Amino acid sequence: MMANEFPQTLTIAGTDSGGGAGIMADLKTMQACQVFGAAVVVAVTAQNTLGVQDFMALPQKLIDEQFASLAADLKIRACKTGMLADAAHVHGVVENLKKYDFGLLTVDPVMIAKGGAALLADDAVTTVRDELVPLADVLTPNLPEAERLTGLTITDNRGMEAAAMALQDLGAKNVVIKGGHEATPDQASDFVLLVDGRSFWLSAARMDTVRTHGTGDTLSSCITAALAKGEDFETAIRIAKDFVTAAIANPIAVGNGHGPLNHWAYNQGGAE
Ligand SMILES: Nc1ncnc2c1ncn2[C@@H]1O[C@H](COP(=O)(O)OP(=O)(O)OP(=O)(O)O)[C@@H](O)[C@H]1O
Ligand SMILES: Cc1ncc(COP(=O)(O)O)c(N)n1
Fold this sequence. Notes:
The protein has helices spanning 22-32, 60-71, 87-99, 125-132, 143-150, 157-169, 215-228, 233-249, and strands at 8-16, 36-48, 51-57, 76-81, 104-107, 138-139, 174-177, 187-193, 199-205. The protein is an alpha/beta fold. Helix 7 runs antiparallel to helix 8 (233-249). The structure holds adenosine-5'-triphosphate and (4-amino-2-methylpyrimidin-5-yl)methyl dihydrogen phosphate. (4-amino-2-methylpyrimidin-5-yl)methyl dihydrogen phosphate is lined by residues 13-16, 21-22, 45, 47, 82-83, 110, 113-114, 119, 213-214, 216-217.
């Protein structure tokens, strides 16, 4: 393998001082997936498993410089976005994604943290919908995010399927509607609509646990890692579901609130 050819990935998101979500969860997932992970920090949060105490988005100039630094040196094969804070920063990230080639893009349209804190300004939802979603090779909204982006109300499986189609109409190629927030007691079921029109459900036993901090970040960064390794969309999404299921099913005791996932579990044979 050439010196510059090792699979390289990028997360464009916010930090989590508590280590469980955001860029920290992304890099831990990428490491476990045996790809190299780089990061463009858009926002810094003061956060733990109990919630988000404060955050600040970085000046756009510094964000632009991080993109330029990576473009000048690394060979990123796949990237993902997470917390982008506000409309101006969403727009700034979109400009950079159009300027540089960082490979396949997974968009996790992060809006509200598990503890209830807003990680995206309300008026930025339209910017995400109009500017970022059309660039997405894979879009991974949870149910509230899918509702905000489409204007639909999702109450059942049919609603998830309709939302996925609406998101493809907005320009996303492959869509994963995450059912973590669904009120089904037994199953955590995600609906996948692929770019070629095929669709399927991915279901796992729903774990009765509060240790689910960073589940969405973990899923989207595992998809990113698998794509960087050359997997096709369907395989990448299936691997990521197994990875996150194992990471939830084998909890580690950290913090007193929504605890982080176990990013070693999948490699230790912990897939359910
Ligand atoms: N309690 C659970 N048991 C099993 N799987 C779960 C559970 N909660 C979430 N999942 C799975 O985790 C993945 C992420 O889904 P979720 O809806 O929690 O995303 P999210 O809200 O974006 O996560 P976060 O905001 O915490 O990063 C999905 O595959 C979902 O089915
Ligand atoms: C920086 C950052 N990015 C994303 C999340 C979402 O994760 P969760 O919904 O599990 O709190 C978060 N809490 N913090």
